[in-house]
Amino acid sequence: xxxxxxxxxxxxxxxxxxxxxxxxxxxxxxxxxxxxxxxxxxxxxxxxxxxxxxxxxxxxxxxxxxxxxxxxxxxxxxxxxxxxxxxxxxxxxxxxxxxxxxxxxxxxxxxxxxxxxxxxxxxxxxxxxxxxxxxxxxxxxxxxxxxxxxxxxxxxxxxxxxxxxxxxxxxxxxxxxxxxxxxxxxxxxxxx
Length: 192
What we know:
By secondary structure, the protein is α/β, with parallel strands linked by helices. It contains five helices and nine strands. The chain has one domain (8-189): Rossmann fold, CATH 3.40.50. The chain has a five-stranded parallel beta sheet, with helices on both faces. Strands 8-2-1-9 form a four-stranded mixed beta sheet. α3 (70-81) links the parallel β3 and β4. The chain is globular, with a radius of gyration of 17 Å.
């Protein structure tokens, strides 16, 4: 599905942080198609339902995601699980902090599942976790459609991580260590 929709691409890619890789994955491209979004959402919800602790709290469970990439996944998982509701955090610019809209934020002691389309470095989910915890909500786990950790992936301690697929790409710290650069493979810059 990921290749068919153009979400998964092979080549030579450079991220804004200077890291190079041989694969680029943009899960949102697969979620553009309703039939694939439904399959992926139901699949992820089944992973969540298989956990007895998550299953026991589904009716009270709220889903929180970062805007924009996480929204289709969050709504799909919420619908498939029949969870309580969805919240999302926004940013005015890439460098501004995440925030909730007025009156749309989890409350103290609310049970929350953090959801996103992909977990690579964990930067967005780490920031989202801090924001949710600052509101006093209880985070019970993380769920992503694809787990594609890079060498700098953040640790989430003992929080359970649920995902549909784990994909390993070859990552290079920069152009001087990149085998693809050394071979002269044309590079494509990507933004997140």
